[in-house]
Amino acid sequence: MALFLLLLPPLFFFPSLATLPILFPRAPQSLLANLSESNKYPNLPYSAHYFPQQLDHFSYQPKSYSIFYQKFLMNSTFWERGEPIFVYTGNEGDIEWFAANTGFMMDIAPKFRALLVFIEHRYYGTSKPFGEKSYESADKLGYLNSAQALADYAVLIRSLKHNMSAESSPVVVFGGSYGGMLAAWFRLKYPQIAIGALASSAPILQFDDITPWSSFYDGVSQDYKMCRIIDGFPPEVDILTKVFSAASLYYNYSGSQSCFNIGYEADVHGLDGWNWQACTEMVMPMICSHKSMFPPSAYDYKEFGDQCKKTYGVRPRPHWITTEYGGHNIKQVLSRFGSNIIFSNGMKDPWSRGGVLENLSSSIVALVTAKGAHHVDFRSATEEDPTWLIEQRTLEVEIIRSWIDKYREDEMI
Ligand SMILES: *[C@@H]1O[C@H](CO)[C@@H](O)[C@H](O)[C@H]1NC(C)=O
Ligand SMILES: *[C@@H]1O[C@H](CO)[C@@H](O)[C@H](O)[C@H]1NC(C)=O
Ligand SMILES: *[C@@H]1O[C@H](CO)[C@@H](O)[C@H](O)[C@H]1NC(C)=O
Ligand SMILES: *[C@@H]1O[C@H](CO)[C@@H](O)[C@H](O)[C@H]1NC(C)=O
Ligand SMILES: *[C@@H]1O[C@H](CO)[C@@H](O)[C@H](O)[C@H]1NC(C)=O
Questions:
Q1: What's the pTM?
Q2: Distances (CA, A) of 3 to 77, 135, 176, 307, 311
Q3: Where do the coiled-coil regions begin and end (predicted)?
Q4: Of 185, 210, 221, 412, most Cβ neighbours within 10 A?
Q5: 3-class DSSP state for residue 303?
Q6: pLDDT at 32
Q7: What is the DSSP string of 170-183?
Q8: Which of 198, 364, 365 to mutate to test the pocket of ligand 5 (most atoms within 8 A of CB)?
């Protein structure tokens, strides 16, 4: 496995899509090992629950019916019966991490009297169907794919609505990065369950060929909070010190570490699971030119496919995602067959290259900010938020409100 990681173009793995720490360091292994479940995310305002989920939603072999426990987080403080349910479609990592970084949903919950639910993606965090053996072989990893994950969310949401007598509550799905892709796809595949989706920084796969996204990281600054830290230093301070301090926003090194560890240790983003996804359906070719602070890298699809075959015994299916969810000719197709999706993207986020950047219809809306970074709109509001960010969030709230109002109107008919 380790060999495999080293052989692949590193940038492929940096952007685990898992949001911010991606660009920079992985926390030292010893520190990570110390972050146990309980103290990793202290004071997270959610209660944890475990749902008996079916292993395979798409076949009827006896083993398909095996159960694993899927974690989800919930907060019902603001909820009133009949009022909306906001669901975060978890991505490739511990669900707590995404809950901790998506304060936006908590911020707006009182306005909507919404129930908040964050569902962990299968094969990540503690939602591993085969426990520690889940990544052992393709036989076990075979159930790790986006279609199964979406089906998990659908089944869990139905069960939750039933248990809470919340059948009439409209569901809105939220997701950032890969989670944003899932949120948008969820709205397309399960419109009867979710009335709308807010997909932040989702590089929704639109291409049908294997042309790399060029100059992926060139001149890009990743996160505006990190940038604020960097900009806060006097000019004479060296770049590594600045960047290191910025990274400490996410990893508390307590000043004891003096150098980056740009390794690929197991971390909260579950890169082991992501490697499998990248080797099967999530084929995102990227390169890095010589213009950025990162080492240049090229992309060789054949070499990549060979590595996947060698490691897992399977080859990527680069056209499957666009076949399953659409993506080719996205403008024409989505405007006809989809509705109620917000794609928000910040142009300082390298992933915006793959995002939906124009309005496709009156209800498939692109909110594009010149200064925005990787799903910065999903973070908790702070005193220092710039006007453009406040405006972006306000617009998101207004649009979600309009979906709910329309849903209520239709209910009356
Ligand atoms: C991890 O925890 C142990 C025991 O609490 C402590 O002795 C050690 O210094 C910690 N390591 C790090 C890197 O924080
Ligand atoms: C739900 O959120 C509210 C507001 O943030 C908080 O006061 C409450 O403790 C949370 N509930 C749980 C179960 O964490
Ligand atoms: C709903 O209730 C059933 C029966 O108690 C339980 O097995 C299931 O986990 C519950 N669903 C959710 C989403 O909590
Ligand atoms: C970082 O860790 C140190 C030592 O454990 C602690 O005193 C400090 O408050 C932490 N800083 C942040 C921002 O959490
Ligand atoms: C899309 O439409 C919304 C209004 O619904 C507008 O605020 C936004 O700027 C438009 N997006 C683009 C990329 O033009």
A1: 0.79
A2: 48, 16, 30, 10, 9
A3: none
A4: 185
A5: helix
A6: 46
A7: -EEEEEETHHHHHH
A8: 365
Check: CB of residue 271 under 8 Å from CB of residue 13.
yes
CA angle 70, 49, 146 (to 5 degrees): 25
pLDDT tens-digit series, residues 179-197: 999 999 999 999 999 999 9
* 378-384: long-range pairs with CB below 8 Å, 24+: 378/101, 378/102, 378/103, 378/104, 378/105, 378/174, 378/176, 378/200, 379/101, 379/102, 379/103, 379/104, 379/225, 380/103, 380/104, 380/106, 380/107, 381/103, 381/104, 381/107, 384/228
Phi, psi of 255 (to 5 degrees): 65, 5
Highest mean pLDDT among 10-14, 28-32, 77-81: 77-81
Rounded Cα distance, 367 and 379, in Å: 16
How many angstroms is it from 104 CA to the middle of ligand 2? 14
The answer to whether 290 and 209 are in contact (CB under 8 A) is no
**Of 127, 134, 146, 177, which is the active-site residue?**
177
Instruction: HSE, CB side, 13 Å, CA atoms: give it for residue 99.
Output: 26
CB 8 within 8 A of CB 308: no
Q: Identify the structural domains of the chain with CATH numbers, from first to last.
A: 1-413 (3.40.50.1820)
